[in-house]
């Protein structure tokens, strides 16, 4: 790179900053993890007013000799939008006293223990070292020819094989999925309940331990809801009047139903596997009354250029799929091809879930 004028210096230095920013992108997530482990959002929330640094330090379960570092942790988290600095009540404004304190933002509220829709468990599972280590092995995996994904290169087995052998990991994955299920069900029930209206039966395939299922079944008492997952996942789980847990393999049988639902399942599988699964769904719903459909809760990749935060988050999840599973995130064109190849006649996308959408697919 020839450095001839001010403009090329500026490009050089911007490029260096860009690279270093990427080298340390993980600082945001790791700092947030630290704040969650120290229960900072809960402590500030319990305080009930902007909390000064000294009040926060006093309340934290840390070695008090390290108090000076809390300011730096909070500074990056304020910068990242998890806390804001607000003026303290005027009585604190005398000389020598702190005039400002930390308050929560909508994002940190979603991390509070007593927030019904808290997604801390999902955040923590993403940052579990078992999930983080495979990122170190992406290039190793791309060079070799014997592992399905970097997770297998790292741990010697597939993600869900490891999960069933490690009860602590299994529990954190279930808690993560459950927290997502609560949030997604709550948004759907408030903003697009119509998706389930008029349905007599739904089979939620790969429904996990059924948190999403419980919310929907409770909201629609006349809907017969089956939460279908691998036998070892649903073993011992108790249903209710209109919710049952059924064990099975979606590549072998799918119970007959009016509608089939997939939430965060198809992104784990490649296109051939998705077409195979969707064809089975078509058979499962085709003998039923009118109104049969497949409901898919997944990302639809946005097509804007880089710089858009939703697209960036979606692309992060696409790389997550590459690292952990065999699937990917799909654009509308990708989804349309899958539906066509599985012989469905049409679809409609409802972009009502932030980074995800609800897709209805019609036989
Ligand atoms: C990412 S989790 C999604 C769980 C749930 N739908 C949610 O969003 O919280 C994927 C689920 O697919 C299930 N699964 C994997 N292979 C399956 C199969 N062959 N048949 C049925 N379920 C399967 C897993 O056990 C797991 O519960
Ligand atoms: O949040 C997760 C976590 C997993 C996961 C992590 C570690 C394992 O050994 C198995 C599974 O898988 C997920 C997944 O497949 C998904 O579609 C969304 C979230 C997660």
TrEMBL record:
<dbReference type="InterPro" id="IPR016461">
    <property type="entry name" value="COMT-like"/>
</dbReference>
<dbReference type="InterPro" id="IPR029063">
    <property type="entry name" value="SAM-dependent_MTases_sf"/>
</dbReference>
<keyword id="KW-0489">Methyltransferase</keyword>
<dbReference type="InterPro" id="IPR036390">
    <property type="entry name" value="WH_DNA-bd_sf"/>
</dbReference>
<feature type="domain" description="O-methyltransferase dimerisation">
    <location>
        <begin position="21"/>
        <end position="114"/>
    </location>
</feature>
<dbReference type="GO" id="GO:0008757">
    <property type="term" value="F:S-adenosylmethionine-dependent methyltransferase activity"/>
</dbReference>
<dbReference type="InterPro" id="IPR012967">
    <property type="entry name" value="COMT_dimerisation"/>
</dbReference>
<feature type="active site" description="Proton acceptor">
    <location>
        <position position="267"/>
    </location>
</feature>
<dbReference type="InterPro" id="IPR036388">
    <property type="entry name" value="WH-like_DNA-bd_sf"/>
</dbReference>
<dbReference type="InterPro" id="IPR001077">
    <property type="entry name" value="COMT_C"/>
</dbReference>
<comment type="similarity">
    <text>Belongs to the class I-like SAM-binding methyltransferase superfamily. Cation-independent O-methyltransferase family. COMT subfamily.</text>
</comment>
<keyword id="KW-0808">Transferase</keyword>
<dbReference type="GO" id="GO:0032259">
    <property type="term" value="P:methylation"/>
</dbReference>
<dbReference type="Pfam" id="PF08100">
    <property type="entry name" value="Dimerisation"/>
</dbReference>
<feature type="domain" description="O-methyltransferase C-terminal">
    <location>
        <begin position="135"/>
        <end position="345"/>
    </location>
</feature>
<dbReference type="GO" id="GO:0046983">
    <property type="term" value="F:protein dimerization activity"/>
</dbReference>
<dbReference type="Pfam" id="PF00891">
    <property type="entry name" value="Methyltransf_2"/>
</dbReference>
<dbReference type="GO" id="GO:0008171">
    <property type="term" value="F:O-methyltransferase activity"/>
</dbReference>
<protein>
    <submittedName>
        <fullName>Uncharacterized protein</fullName>
    </submittedName>
</protein>
<keyword id="KW-0949">S-adenosyl-L-methionine</keyword>
């Amino acid at each position: 790179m020839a450095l001839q004028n001010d403009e090329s210096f500026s490009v050089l230095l911007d490029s260096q900053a860009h690279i270093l920013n990427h080298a340390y992108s993980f600082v945001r997530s790791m700092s947030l993890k630290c704040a969650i482990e120290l229960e900072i959002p809960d402590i500030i929330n319990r305080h009930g007013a902007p909390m000064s640094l000294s009040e926060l330090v006093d309340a934290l379960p840390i070695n008090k000799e390290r108090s000076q570092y809390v300011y730096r942790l909070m500074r990056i988290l304020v910068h990242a939008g998890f806390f804001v600095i607000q003026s303290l009540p005027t009585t604190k404004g005398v000389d020598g006293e702190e005039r400002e304190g930390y308050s929560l933002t909508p994002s940190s509220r979603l991390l509070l223990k007593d927030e019904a829709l808290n997604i801390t468990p999902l955040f923590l599972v993403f940052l579990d070292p078992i999930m983080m280590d495979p990122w170190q092995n992406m290039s190793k995996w791309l060079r070799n020819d014997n592992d399905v994904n970097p997770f297998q290169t790292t741990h010697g087995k597939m993600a869900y094989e490891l999960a069933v052998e490690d009860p602590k990991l299994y529990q954190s994955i279930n808690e993560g999925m459950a927290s997502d299920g609560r949030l997604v069900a709550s948004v759907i029930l408030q903003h697009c309940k119509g998706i389930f209206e008029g349905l007599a039966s739904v089979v939620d395939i790969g429904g996990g331990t059924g948190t999403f299922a419980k919310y929907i079944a409770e909201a629609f008492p006349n809907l017969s809801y089956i939460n279908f997952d691998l036998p070892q996942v649903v073993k011992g789980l108790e249903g209710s009047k209109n919710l049952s847990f059924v064990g099975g393999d979606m590549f072998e049988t799918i119970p007959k139903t009016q509608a089939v639902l997939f939430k965060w399942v198809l992104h784990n599988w490649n296109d051939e596997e998705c077409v195979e699964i969707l064809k089975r769904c078509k058979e499962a719903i085709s003998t039923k009354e009118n109104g049969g459909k497949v409901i898919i809760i997944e990302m639809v990749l946005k097509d804007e250029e880089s710089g858009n935060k939703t697209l960036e988050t979606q692309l992060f999840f696409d790389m997550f799929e590459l690292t952990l599973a065999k699937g990917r995130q799909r654009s509308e064109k990708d989804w349309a091809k899958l539906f066509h190849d599985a012989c469905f006649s049409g679809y409609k996308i409802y972009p009502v879930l932030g980074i995800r959408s609800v897709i209805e697919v019609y036989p």
